[in-house]
Each structure stands twice: as C-alpha cells, then as structure tokens.
Design goal:
The protein has 356 residues and is of the alpha+beta class. It is built from 6 helices and 16 strands. The strands form 4 sheets. It has an 8-stranded antiparallel beta barrel with strand order 9-10-11-12-13-14-15-16. Strand 14 and strand 15 form a beta hairpin. The relative contact order is 0.10.
Length: 356
C-alpha cells in the first residue's frame, strides 16, 4: 500500500512539469497547407533525432536530410496511400515529465476530403513512440479494452434510448437509430488513438458514421478517459516508471521502433518497424544512408522471428508484386540478426541491426 501511495504522490506532484528545454516549432518550409511539428531537445539530441525521424518517415514518408521538401509527397498525393494530405496544425499537450504528447490536425483526400486528428506519444527518456499495449500487464490488456468498449457502448446506447423516446420520429431520426444500432464498438489497444493528459489518459475511439452519414452523427468520436490512479492495478512496470518520473526504462515491444545497422557489413541502413497486427503481420520501411530513399517491407513477426518480403515492382502481366529480396531474421534482445537474400541471384547477405 505504501508503494502505491508513493507512486501516486509522484504522479500528482513533480512529474507533470514538462522538460523545460524541449520546444516544438514548424518544420520548414511551412505553408498554408503544411504546418508540421519539429522537435528541438538540446538536452537530449539523440532523443530529438529519433522523434523527428519517426514523425517524418511515418507521417510524411520523408527521410530527414534527403532531397526535396518534407511536404512534397503528401501534398502531391504520391505517398504509399495515394491521397493528398494536408497538415493544418499541431499542439504540445501537458503531460507527465517523461512523456511528449503531440496533437496533429489535418485533412486527407480520398473519395471525399476528410479532416483528421491524430495523437503521437513519445518516451522522452528514449525517443521511442509509446505503444498503448506496452502500458498494461499482459493479463490486463483485455480488461482495459473491455473498459473502453463498455464506455463507448454506454454512450451509444444512452443516445439510442434518447432517440427512440421520440413518439413520432422523423426519417432523419430513423436513419440515426439504424446507424447507431450498427455502430462498431469493439475497439482494441492495437487500433485506438490515445494521449496523455496531466492526471489522466484519454482514448479516442472512431465515430459510428462513415463519411456519407457523418451529418447524422451527433456523437462524433468517442472519448474515454481514466485517471492514472484508476488504472493502477493494470499498469505494466514500464508504465509505472514512465508516469512516476523514473529514469528506469523497462523492455518494450518491437512495435514502432527504429533500428540501425548494415547489410553485408558495409551498407548502412536504418529501419522503422511499424506496429505488429493481431494476425502477426506487419510492415516496415528502411533506407540506405547513402541515398535516403524509402524501401518498403511486408511480412510476419512470430515468436521473435521476422519473415519479410521486399518488393521490387508490380507486374501488370502477373498481376502481382515481384520481390526484390527475402529477409529472414531473429529478434535477439535489442538486435535483429539474419539474412537478406537477393530474389534473382539467390545470394545471401548478412543483416545486422540494433535498436536505436
């Protein structure tokens, strides 16, 4: 009990002061359709570099220091998701000391223009993106997901009750009822957005409507918040140290981490691993330090083993991607060790990577 009291005293006290020397400015060149965050942290330049690299590669598909404007691909619809993406602004949120949470707003084009809000949370001790699943004990993740799901369902069901109380509902109300009755509420920690506040964590679940039905959606996104103390029995040791201002860094998953190393012992590369999906599939991006051009990987991560395909080009004749290389590697502590095999020549090259 004493340990719990001490932990939450720390949470409610000094741990909320942001790192004083950390500043965020606009990544240049800024424009009307491009206001994107760039972190400055002179106290920890290594952390600064990791955060900026992650943000620019993940959001802009741009490698810092490469040719051209950082906004070039997103503003011309030439990213892998083929949409125009505009970034209109960002905000640094008030958080515990070890955490940087950034809110980003923008608009993406698809069949229709769609505004978006996104939150990115970083561990200021390491520069790593904070994964929601790393915050909770393995046997508590389903419980936390259930708490989120129940809160969303209650909000939807309460509003349905209100709508159904109308004795003479209009066609619009009937459409609303149908939409909310079909609303997806089974959100998991893998796909939900979230951010840290001063004394609580907020999860943001997607709205019930698609774009065509959005005008009928009076609820919008669902915000579920928990005071840190209410999740005390579910936190992992990593989360407890993160929130209590401790410098102790516990081991976390491979998700969203940067790795640096070499192919064949002489070609320096950096790799960004994306989140591992529930079916064990994942994607990644890497670049050679010499030319800084992003190359995509896709594969599976099972029992600390990575099986990866690096595609070369899409064959219209075969109606499929033609591989350039096949990678088999193992996660060993903070290293990834394996082979990069040329698909045409079948030649094997050694792959050695270490977590940044």
């Amino acid at each position: 009990m004493k340990k719990k009291i001490l932990f939450f005293l720390l949470i409610s006290g000094l741990s909320f002061s942001q790192q004083k020397n950390l500043k965020i400015t606009d990544l240049q060149p800024k424009s009307e359709d491009f206001a994107f965050p760039k972190v400055s942290y002179p106290e920890k330049p290594f952390v600064e570099n990791k955060i900026n690299t992650f943000l620019q590669v993940d959001q802009l598909e741009y490698v810092p220091g490469s040719e051209g404007s950082p906004s070039q691909l997103v503003s011309t619809g030439k990213t892998s998701y083929s949409n125009y993406v505009y970034f209109y602004g960002w905000e640094k949120l008030k958080t515990p000391k070890n955490i940087l949470s950034i809110a980003i707003t923008g608009e993406a084009s698809g069949a229709y223009p769609e505004g978006f809000d996104s939150w990115k949370n970083f561990d200021l001790r390491t520069g790593n993106l904070i994964n929601a699943k790393d915050l909770f004990q393995p046997n508590s993740k389903k419980t936390v997901e259930s708490l989120i799901q129940k809160s969303v369902r209650k909000e939807v069901n309460d509003f349905l009750t209100e709508l159904k109380s109308d004795k003479n509902p209009s066609e619009e109300v009937l459409d609303q009822i149908a939409m909310y009755e079909d609303c997806f509420t089974d959100f998991t920690l893998d796909g939900i957005e979230y951010y840290f506040a001063e004394d609580k964590i907020r999860f943001i679940a997607g709205r019930c409507s698609n774009h065509a039905m959005r005008a009928l959606d009076d609820l919008g996104s669902h915000v579920v918040e928990f005071p840190y103390k209410d999740l005390g029995k579910y936190w992992s040791s990593y989360a407890k140290n993160l929130l209590s201002d401790s410098e102790k860094v516990d081991k976390t998953s491979i998700n969203n981490k940067l790795y640096k190393g070499k192919i064949d012992g002489k070609y320096p590369i950096t790799v960004l691993i994306n989140s591992i999906n529930e079916d064990d599939s994942f994607s990644a991006s890497y670049w050679y330090h010499k030319n800084k051009k992003l190359i995509n990987w896709r594969g599976e991560f099972v029992h600390d083993h990575l099986s990866i395909t690096e595609d070369d080009y899409y064959s219209e004749e075969l109606k499929q991607w033609v591989p350039r290389a096949l990678i088999e590697a193992d996660l060993k502590g903070n290293k990834i060790i394996g082979t990069w095999q040329d698909y045409k020549t079948k030649k094997y090259l050694k792959l050695e990577l270490e977590e940044l």
